[in-house]
Hints:
The protein is of the alpha+beta class and 228 residues long. It folds into two domains: 3-166, 2-Layer Sandwich (Beta-Lactamase); 172-225, Winged helix-like DNA-binding domain superfamily/Winged helix DNA-binding domain (Arc Repressor Mutant, subunit A, Orthogonal Bundle), CATH 1.10.10.10. It has helices at 3-19, 23-37, 62-74, 78-84, 107-113, 146-193, 197-211, 215-225; strands at 43-50, 53-57, 91-94, 118-125, 130-138. The protein has a five-stranded antiparallel sheet with strand order 2-1-5-4-3, sandwiched between helices. A hairpin with a 2-residue loop joins strand 1 and strand 2 (53-57). Helix 1 runs parallel beside helix 6 (146-193), helix 2 runs antiparallel to helix 6 (146-193) and helix 7 crosses helix 8.
Amino acid sequence: MDWRVFAQQMATMARDLLAQQSMDATLQRITESATELVEGCDAAGVLILHGTRVETLAPTDQVVIDSDQLQERLQEGPCFDAARDHHGERVLRIADFTAEQHRWPAYAPQARELQLGSMMGFLLYTDDEDLGALNIYSRRPGAFTEASETAGWLLASHAAVAFSSARTHAQMEQAVATRHTIGEAMGILMGRHHLTEEQAFDVLRRYSQENNIKLREVARRICAKGSL
């Protein structure tokens, strides 16, 4: 690998990541970059764990989804471990799935049936939070070298910062939208029932608690229907 060329590609990719307009676009660019920059990579995706439930983000190939769903069903596998083990290795490299049946006796044979030969998993993290795992697959055993691992680690480091930034921006946009919707719903209640601002908010809050519905959803329904 020509590291000078790779460094230029990585710098271009990092700027490109920060220029994306949404979290989905950022994640898609991350996984596409993996197939472009990591030698041996045939497919990539980001895996997020919600307890024991797996969510696959920005997969470049159906095999990524199939592998993640298989690991969720079996509750074992390298990507599952990479996303869950926040205190273990930050990089997980599987040279050959046929030699990994002692670690993942249920998953490894079925991964071979998916035509997977080798993989690498990189924990996506910043100083403040763990974000999931970037998983990189090859259909060939022994496809990944030390250079592949270094390239993947550098990509994952840039990706974690961009992912965190994009998610924070998305959360801020959602918070602003939620606040606007709640304010609009309060205005409707105040106008229809001659309530004060405090009374209108109390109506929303009590309805939310008594019916176990999120406050923003209660507000959205009022805005859509004009009442509860």
